[in-house]
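the three lines:
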Amino acid sequence: MDDIRFAERDLCVTEAKIAARDVQVHYGTNHALKDVNVDILEQTVTAFIGPSGCGKSTFLRCLNRMNDTIPGCRIEGRLTLDGQDIYDPRVDPVQLRAKVGMVFQKPNPFPKSIYDNVAYGPRIHGLTRNKAELDEIVEKSLRRAALWEEAKDRLASPGTGLSGGQQQRLCIARAIATSPEVLLMDEPCSALDPIATAQIEELIDELRAQFSVVIVTHSMQQAARVSQRTAFFHLGRLVEYGETGQIFTNPHDPRTESYISGRIG
Amino acid sequence: MSIGILVLAVLILAAAGFVLGRQRALATAGGDPRRLHSLPGHYGQFTAILAAVPALVLLAIWLLAQPLAIESRIAPMLTADSPADRSLAMADVRRISIGLDLLAVSDRLSEDAVASLSSETLAPRLRQVGTAVTQVTPEALSAAKAHRTMRHTLQIWMTAAVGLTAATCFVFALLRIRPDFRARNVSERFVMWLLIAASLVAVATTAGIVLSLVSETLHFFRIYPAREFFLSLTWNPQFRGGSDLGIWPLLWGTVYISIIALIVAVPIGLLTAVYLSEYASRRTRGWAKPAIEILAGIPTIVYGLFALITVGPALRDWFAQPLGLGASSSSVMTAGLVMGIMLIPFVSSLSDDIINAVPQSLRDGSYGLGATQSETVKLVILPAALPGIVGAVLLAASRAIGETMIVVLGAGAAAKLSLNPFEAMTTVTVKIVSQLTGDTEFASPETLVAFALGLTLFVMTLVLNVLALYIVRKYREQYE
Amino acid sequence: MTDAAAPASPAIRDGSLFAPDAHTRRRNAAERRFRAYGITAVALSILALIVLLVSVLGNGAGAFRQTFIQIPVTIDAKIVDPKGNRALDEMKKVTTIGYGKQLEASMLAAVAAAGVATDGLSRKDIAGLLSKEAAAGLRGMVLENPDLIGRTITFRALANGRIDGYFKGRVSMDSAKLDSNISPAQLVLAERLRDAGLVTVAFNPQFLLGADASEVRPEAAGLGVAILGSAYMMIIVLVLALPLGVAASIYLEEFAPKNRWTDLIEVNIANLAAVPSIVYGILGLAIFINTLGLPQSAPIVGGLILTLMTLPTIIIATRVSLAAVPPSIRDAALGVGASRMQAVFHHVLPLALPGILTGTIIGMARALGETAPLLLIGMVAFVREFPAAPPEGFFSPASALPVQVYNFTQRADPAFVERASGAIIVLLVFLICMNAAAIILRRRFERRW
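prediction for all of em together
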């Protein structure tokens, strides 16, 4: 088993971190996603774009099995993380989500202190042996989320007391504190003002060094600014996937072109 | 003319006012309702209101004031040593006065015959017409005759005054009606005053509770030392006076039982709420939630009987006697356990609301970090819901303290300061019931102590309720 | 959570997704334990409900069936109408003792006619099988229908409570030995009479229709007065609490300015909903009885107290339904020139009505089961006479169903436990009907905006 895994892993590093093959998602009788095939690469920012209701957020939530919490949701096809099937019955979604972190549309800090928010993940996953290690993780995560300077003097004050942009950076710090391999972001800037958005975008670019980042966004400009690869979803189908520059300047599919030029969506 | 007929007459006048007001409005507008400021019906309402309301208000005031006026005139005719004696004598006079009326009707007596009735043979005759008097003194009889005459005279005046008011206002209203008169505004303002008055009933209720409790409690403390009540450790009422009326044994029983009830209800209720809102499938929730709500709809007397015939004997036979802790089927444990069952749905439905108020985004955040469901519940949802849950527990505690029937039937009547949960103890509410349903005289400390106990209970629950309501309100605002 | 023995981050980093590591296994075990706690809690709640219902139903079902002794009785004109003129006033002077003698004779004759051996039981012991209430029943029958005089009728007499208890398993031969009210020989006779068809156990309408009976005659105790008293109080609650509650809610929800005064009213209403019910009893005693001089034990006082108790519930429910009507409806009405009052009464109130009625029914159901305040206003008194028709009936003494339950529990004879449980079944049936009505109302008319 071990040697197979290594072989696969080697393959994946060069090929893809997450691979989706013929993924179908049903909500009850609604066929929400059809035949999605995509490879998400390591150390890359991948953007999912498309009009509302096109299935991009649904697909994002499939990647760490957040759809499990929605009753009536069925997923078919094959989704692998480092070659291991995410939907294999042996997989514990809890362990999966430790590897595939997530940041949500609206900042959702827990009504606890800033410190406890960041320390939550490491604590539940038992990542530290003592307080000093935990302090170190908290500091490192807050620094990486570019929040340390603002928050270091008020670690004990509630996370809900921060501004919107700070809250979202806190949520990012919280997500990276467990050192995930992939970070999923579901329209992380849609609730923020332009200045806070710019800070988060800068942060996403820095995070690329350690993580594979997948970001769902409404804004094409944002996708162009932060991502290296872009996937365009339309009506539950993955229409086009490729280099961001190519998608925006030279799309192959006429639907992509219509969307980019503002005729649909 | 009796009051009922008078009221009926005024109401008939008001009904006539409605019809006439409508017609007159239409007539002044030349039969064209479009020329009126308000709908024709509004003019009818205006006339009806004006005909009925001032007259009925006057009637109500008259009825309240008349006995006071008469009795202040009668009082000098009675010899009495104390205010209590005076009020007793006055009650007698009132009864005899009414009895004379009945007698006059049943025996067809003329006014002169009534005036010449003598006190010796009167008592049995009065009893025959249904008046409960034991004996009639000459003094009481003459006072009663004066009482009766005054009553009759004032009654005639009252009828006249009320009738005149109704008629005057009726005519006045009709005269006011012109096409540009804003009848709708008047009638709506009147309805508004009715609405305001209705919302003041709640305030009046609280005021009534506080006033009746405080005044009787002060009465109690005038005949029984407050120090004793608040500091004595024994509760031992005697029929012949010399009672020990210390509140502590009762408070201890109340608190002890409430604590047991909360120990039962809070974990079960909270876990039930958590399970049903976070874990259970829609189908399970569909039947389990209503089933638990049935528990909430069951009257407390049913729980009381359950304690008396099932739980009490079972606890005695299986726990208390084998463990040598007592042989009584009514005990703190019985009452606490059953009260706990009663509180389960209360705690669970309040907690359910509160847990559902925690935003889904917090759950998502936690699951997104790889937390299990129980970790999410324990580390995110419950801490976030904590203030609300504390509020719910306080409300449950207030319920437990004020609960009566379960403790009356399940806890026993012995006032004791003991730690043994299988011993019968008693509570504040049990003693309120037993002191107020007993045969002791109302003015005795043994009866009046119930009001002091009631005030204590009211204050305790008030503090808990207001605190709980405040916390829950603040909690809800946080997530709105 | 920060377990010292837990492996540090590398375990999760490199571990296969397919094989949970030790830490995850522990977490999953904790998850299963927590889920088990939850299931246990739900199961305990439901178990408590089942035990409670089974206990009450099991004890109370017997109250609806009663042991009767059927004997032919000849109504002797010489005893019941000594002057022979069939004047009701005269006949009323014959007490139950006269009828009792006649029943005793008929009983002995019936036993002899059936050929049942009496084993030397005395006349008194044989007649003792009959309830002491049987004579009163016969007297009532004759006074109601004087034509029966001189005829022989088959009279279905109530059996003594102990005989009834024997057939229901409450009384045994052993307990009868220690009992001064019954002897084992009488029980044997009762069994023989049952074999002979004279003694039957049948549905007992008197339990629902009859009045309460004294402490020594549990077999005759009925709920009629209590049911009527409760019904009177519910009428008063409905007539007073619904309009008052709706009016108060309309003011608070639609018209009241937001200021400290209305805030106070709101806190006050929320608090009133949580004031212990017994405090309302004290209020009733002090204000309605001692100050206003209303009669004790009367449905009017109980009804007023329950009205005050129900008001907060109705106000809270009504305000929720009023608030649920979207503002666009009000805007639409105001937009065509209706006054605010017209907008509320013509549009908002009708739309909120189902919710208001549901709240009212639920509040009344709660009031129906309320006991403690009624104890304080003298409703514990033993009442045998049926109250008159309203409105006078509102002022005459009556009982109430839950108070009757309490009364039954305070009596020594264990037969009253069965009566109390039976009364609770009746109470619960009423409550179920009311709640079902509320649910149907909500299902049929509820509107989601």
